[in-house]
Every structure is written in structure tokens, then in C-alpha cells.
């Protein structure tokens, strides 16, 4: 049996402070591989971006989107406190929503970014402890709202036709509309 363990904590320090069992540390610590955070391996960011672009384009059956220079620069300059998982979620959101400006605004202003001197700006969003699952759920909800709205517009707000277009049941569409805040009788042209 092999046991692989990963952590972002300093286990040796935790052992010294009595927060981690010493005997367990020595049982696990056979081969120790230190992987620096993504912000210390910026040259690898374009490789991961390309990988995640292809992965999510295939998953969602979408064309691989071309990034603007400003979006790519934002991704390269960002601090990546959530490491590769955070980058993965950003690229997934980009493939699903295709909205560079929204992502640039999110990454560029309140989140932690590193300037050239290496000093950091504090991130009020990190204080809220939003999980990646919550961020993913919010991005999916925005994408669903956009797609449902487009389907309703294309079908001139005929919910039955929109449900067929989206390949979901009529009741499923009504539920999703309510969940997305579109309301059962959503039709801005009748307002």
C-alpha cells in the first residue's frame, strides 16, 4: 500500500508545536516533494491556461476562445492564492460565460494581486471565505440565466419552445427560470 499526502501547511513546524503527531509524520515522510505555489512558477501559467482551455472547451462542446492580450496579462500578473485550482475555475468560467471583462474586474480589483515590488493588497473576498464550490455555483447560475434568457428571446418568450430548444422539460424550464430570478411570466416586452 502507498499513501500519498498533500498539504499546504508546514508539518515539521506543526510537529514541533505539538499540533501534529510526530510518529505519524515519520511514517508518512518517506519521500518529500516540495511544489512551490503557482505565483512562484509564473512561466507555467500559459501551459495550464492552454490545457484548461482545451479541457473545458471539449467538456462543454464549445470552440476554444481566443484571449485578448489584456486578459492574458491579468492572468499572468494575478497572485493565484488558490493555486492551480483557482486558475482552473477562472478558465472554466471563461469558457462557460465568455466574459473577459467580468473576470478581469474580479481578478484585477478586490482580490489579492501582486505588483512588481511583490507587495500585496488585501482581499475582502477572501475574508468572506467563499469556497470554490460557491464560486462555481454562482458562475453556473449566471451562465444558465444568460442561456435561458437567450432561448426565451429567440422563441419570442414561448416557454414551451424555449424548453424544447434547451432540451429540458417545460417544468424544468419553469423551475430554472424561478431559480435564476427570471420569474414564471418573464417577458420584458409585455412589461
How would you describe the overall organization of this protein?
The chain is 55% helix and 0% strand. By secondary structure, it is an all-alpha fold. Helix 4 (69-77) packs parallel to helix 6, helix 5 packs parallel to helix 8 and helix 9 (159-166) crosses helix 10. The model is unreliable at 110-128 (pLDDT under 50).
* Number of E-type strands: 0
- In helices, the fraction of residues equals 55-70%
Uncertain ranges: 110-128
Order of helices and strands: HHHHHHHHHH
Could you say what the CATH architecture of the largest domain is?
A: Orthogonal Bundle
- Which whole number gives the mean pLDDT? 81
- The radius of gyration computed from the alpha-carbon positions, rounded to a whole number of angstroms, is 22 Å
Percent of residues in beta strands? under 5%
Task: Name the shape in a single word.
Answer: elongated
Can you tell me the CATH class of the largest domain?
Mainly Alpha
CATH topology of the largest domain: Helicase, Ruva Protein, domain 3
Question: Termini separation (Å)?
Answer: 66 Å
Number of helices: 10
Q: What structural class should be given to the helix and strand makeup?
A: mainly alpha
Number of domains: 3
The major β-sheet equals: none
Short description:
The protein has 191 residues and is mainly alpha-helical.
Architecture blueprint of SSEs:
Layout: H1 11-16, H2 22-28, H3 45-59, H4 69-77, H5 83-97, H6 100-108, H7 124-127, H8 132-154, H9 159-166, H10 170-179
Helix pairs in contact: 3-5, 4-6, 5-8, 8-9, 8-10, 9-10
Amino acid at each position: 500500500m502507498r499513501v500519498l499526502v498533500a498539504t499546504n501547511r508546514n508539518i515539521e513546524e506543526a510537529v514541533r508545536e505539538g499540533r501534529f503527531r510526530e510518529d505519524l509524520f515519520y511514517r508518512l515522510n518517506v519521500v518529500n516533494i516540495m511544489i512551490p505555489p503557482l505565483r512562484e512558477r509564473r512561466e507555467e501559467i500559459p501551459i495550464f491556461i492552454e490545457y484548461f482551455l482545451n479541457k473545458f472547451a471539449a467538456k462543454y462542446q464549445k470552440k476554444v476562445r481566443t484571449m485578448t492580450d489584456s486578459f492574458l496579462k491579468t492572468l499572468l500578473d494575478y497572485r493565484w492564492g488558490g493555486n492551480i485550482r483557482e486558475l482552473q475555475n477562472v478558465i472554466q468560467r471563461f469558457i462557460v460565460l465568455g466574459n473577459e471583462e467580468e473576470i478581469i474586474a474580479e481578478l484585477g480589483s478586490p482580490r489579492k494581486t501582486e505588483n512588481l515590488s511583490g507587495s500585496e493588497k488585501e482581499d475582502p473576498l477572501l475574508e468572506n471565505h467563499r469556497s470554490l464550490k460557491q464560486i462555481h455555483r454562482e458562475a453556473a447560475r449566471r451562465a444558465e440565466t444568460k442561456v435561458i434568457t437567450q432561448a426565451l428571446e429567440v422563441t419570442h418568450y414561448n416557454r414551451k419552445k424555449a424548453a424544447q430548444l434547451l432540451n429540458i422539460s417545460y417544468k424544468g424550464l419553469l423551475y430554472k427560470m424561478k431559480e435564476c430570478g427570471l420569474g414564471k411570466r418573464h417577458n420584458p416586452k409585455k412589461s
